[in-house]
Design goal:
two-stranded parallel ribbon; globular; about 35% helix; alpha/beta
Amino acid sequence: DSLGFPPEPTFFSSIDDTDFDLVWLMSQYGEIGLHTVTHTTLNNSTKTHFKQEFKKCKEWLEKYGHLEKNITIARTPFLKTHEDLFEAYEELGVLIDSSLSVYSDID
């Protein structure tokens, strides 16, 4: 970057089948981001469901991954977002969403 610091990668982790020792190791070389518990599609979910998926993911990654700082970045499964998602993020202290909108009508 312009200050001479190398870019830091972000590793997004869901919970199912996660090796928490590996999460800790990755946290030594970059940032850890939330990616839900089950990696399920959130398209037709409610804000309550979004919040449960990301809250449990955050709790488990921080506790069992022995992370030294709070997780403040997230990415949705399959990069699908929903307007209620951002309100849930705010309630959980997530500051950055790294999901992209996917449009099928772009040439």
